[in-house]
């Protein structure tokens, strides 16, 4: 399989991107990588590899560029080129850690939606206390949503959890302000009814405070709410690690305790580390489009490449197409 990667996107590009690519090439013998970017900036970090093709691009989509305008006008940018490669079927999937809005706009207008999908959703796997993780969508592709959109998010998330994460009958929960069936606003009440009537394993409403306790395998909500929950989880996890570090470094006695608990603290950090879960996938497009975290290091890029390869290997896009078509009969 071939994966097209934006070598210029993200806070630590191109160094972390190239390092992540080289790690992935070593561990995944079934992939070929097309790396797009400015040759002169990529070159210092590159190593020759028979399954790596570097394609020079003159332009870069910057983080503060207007999303729609950037993809439309910067046609020779690394981001535009990876989307073009997927659209023209020269690559099976693409990945970028760059401008989220531009990647979503480009994915929508260049790669295109699956027939029957009204709105693609941004989805990622988030950590849980037991290490299993859960898939959450939408995380910001659409600030507003209709009940039928949330039903489609649930169907796509269910397919992904089953095919990629290997969960036999994934539990799907609707994010709400209470677990009672009648809770919520008009959107969640109507979405609840649609989900309950569907063929997926819907377990009802779930609350934000229970998300990290593995209350569901898939959690669905509108993009506005999902994005705030995602950033709250990321911010809280980061703050907790900072407070723990400060506490353990506050005196000689606590420093000794930290040394004795080194492995346990490392495991805790690993459970809360986004880099182990890959990127966020745009579900509902004609091919896998993966958005890696803007601050991704080499390990996070490696995990995002692994995620893209698994989606291609398990034909996730094709299964979503079939499932959506079946649900509309």
Primary descriptors:
Isopropylmalate Dehydrogenase, alpha/beta, transferase, 2 domains, EC 2.3.1.274, eleven-stranded mixed beta sheet, Phosphate acyltransferase, phosphate:acyl-[acyl carrier protein] acyltransferase activity, 329 residues, FA_synthesis, 11 strands
Kindly describe this structure:
With 329 residues, the protein is α/β, with parallel strands linked by helices. It folds into two domains: 1-117 and 284-329, Isopropylmalate Dehydrogenase; 123-274, Isopropylmalate Dehydrogenase. It is built from twelve helices and eleven strands. The chain has helices at residues 15-27, 39-42, 67-73, 78-87, 100-111, 147-163, 186-197, 223-248, 252-260, 262-271, 298-313, 316-327; strands at residues 2-6, 32-37, 52-56, 93-96, 121-126, 134-137, 172-175, 202-206, 218-220, 280-283, 289-291. The chain has an eleven-stranded mixed sheet, sandwiched between helices. α1 packs across α11, α3 (67-73) packs across α5 (100-111) and α4 runs parallel beside α5. The longest helix is centred in the last third of the chain and has 26 residues, at 223-248. The relative contact order is 0.17. One of its GO terms (biological process) is fatty acid biosynthetic process.
Beta strands, count: 11
Q: So what's the oligomer here? A: single chain
Q: Which secondary-structure class do the elements indicate? A: alpha/beta
Order of helices and strands: EHEHEHHEHEEHEHEEHHHEEHH
Overall average pLDDT: 89
- Largest pleated sheet: 11 strands, mixed
Output the CATH topology of the largest domain.
Isopropylmalate Dehydrogenase
Rg from Cα: 20 Å
**Tell me, what's the shape?**
globular
The CATH superfamily name of the largest domain is Isopropylmalate Dehydrogenase
Strand order within the widest sheet? 3-2-1-4-11-10-5-6-9-7-8
Query: How large a portion of the residues is in β-strands, by DSSP E?
Result: 5-15%
* Second rung of CATH, namely the architecture of the largest domain: 3-Layer(aba) Sandwich
Distance between the termini: 33 Å
Number of helices: 12
CATH C-level name of the largest domain: Alpha Beta
Question: Helical percent range?
Answer: 40-55%
Q: Provide the low-confidence segments as ranges.
A: none
Count the domains.
Answer: 2
Main location: cytoplasm
Pfam families: FA_synthesis
Enzyme class: transferase
Pathway: Lipid metabolism; phospholipid metabolism
């Amino acid at each position: 399989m071939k994966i097209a990667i934006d070598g210029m996107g993200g806070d630590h590009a191109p160094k972390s991107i190239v390092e992540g690519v080289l790690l992935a090439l070593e561990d995944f013998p079934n992939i070929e990588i097309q790396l797009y970017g400015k040759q002169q900036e990529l070159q210092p970090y590159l190593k020759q590899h028979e399954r790596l093709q570097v394609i020079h691009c003159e332009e870069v989509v910057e983080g503060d560029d207007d999303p729609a305008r950037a993809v439309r006008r910067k046609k020779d940018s690394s981001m535009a080129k990876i989307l073009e490669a997927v659209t023209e079927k020269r690559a099976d999937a693409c990945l970028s850690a760059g401008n989220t809005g531009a990647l979503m706009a480009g994915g929508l207008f260049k790669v295109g939606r699956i027939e029957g999908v009204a709105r693609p959703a941004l989805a990622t796997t988030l950590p849980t206390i037991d290490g299993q993780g859960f898939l959450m969508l939408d995380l910001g592709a659409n600030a507003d949503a209709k009940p039928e959109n949330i039903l489609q998010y649930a169907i796509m998330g269910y397919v992904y959890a089953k095919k990629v994460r290997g969960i036999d009958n994934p539990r799907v929960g609707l994010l709400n302000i209470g677990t009672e069936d009648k809770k919520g606003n008009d959107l969640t009440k109507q979405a609840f009814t649609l989900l309950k009537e569907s063929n997926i394993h819907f377990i009802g409403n779930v609350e934000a405070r229970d998300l990290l306790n593995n209350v569901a395998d898939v959690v669905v909500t509108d993009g506005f709410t999902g994005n705030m929950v995602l950033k709250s989880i990321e911010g809280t996890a980061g703050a907790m690690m900072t407070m723990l570090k400060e506490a353990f470094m506050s005196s000689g006695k606590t420093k000794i305790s930290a040394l004795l608990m080194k492995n346990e603290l490392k495991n805790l950090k690993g459970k809360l580390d986004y880099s182990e879960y890959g990127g966020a996938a745009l579900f509902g497009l004609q091919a896998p489009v993966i958005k890696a975290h803007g601050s991704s290091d080499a390990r996070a890029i490696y995990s995002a490449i692994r995620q893209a390869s698994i989606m291609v290997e398990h034909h996730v896009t094709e299964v979503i197409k079939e499932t959506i078509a079946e649900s509309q009969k």
